[in-house]
Amino acid sequence: MDDRILARVKGDPNYQALVKERSAFGWTLAIIMLVLYYAYIAIVAFVPSVIAIKVTGTITVGIFLGAGLILVSIILTGIYVARANSRYDDLTRAIVASATGVSK
User: Fold this and answer.
1) What residues contact residue 64 under an 8 Å CB cut-off, 6+ apart?
2) What is the DSSP-derived secondary structure letter of residue 101?
3) Is residue 27 part of a domain?
4) What is the number of domains present in the chain?
5) Is 103 inside any structural domain?
6) 8 and 96 in contact (C-beta within 8 Å)?
7) 3-class SS at 29?
């Protein structure tokens, strides 16, 4: 990439907004997932009697908590993808148009 184009991209307010927003949002979702995961592990480690409670037959609370954790991770991924496909793609198109002078 040409150094002039690179400098133009780095100086573009849309680029700076993209980097800042994507980083903050990604870290927020990652922290949410880590807190939930470590909470689950803490329950397993410190109060295993809670996850051993039978809900029906051989299905325990632990199975529901584990499935819920997987479901939350899928939902958070979907939220990120939705944001990436709307806001981040719009910013990227604006950056490319600004840097190249070509809009699509």
Assistant:
1) 55
2) S
3) yes
4) 1
5) no
6) no
7) helix
Say if CB 95 and CB 10 are below 8 A apart. Answer: no
Is the dihedral angle over the CA atoms 86, 88, 91, 92 positive or is it negative?
negative
CB atoms within 10 A of CB 3: 7
Q: Place 52 in a pLDDT band, splitting at 50, 70 and 90.
A: very high
Helix, strand, or coil here: 30? helix
Residue 30 counted as domain residue: yes
- CB contact at 8 A, 91 and 18: yes
pLDDT above 90: residue 101: no
Longest Cα separation, the chain: 67
HSE value, Cβ hemisphere, 13 Å, CA-based, for 5: 10
34-44 pLDDT, tens digit each: 999 999 999 99
pLDDT at 81: 96
> Mean of the pLDDT values across residues 46-70?
95
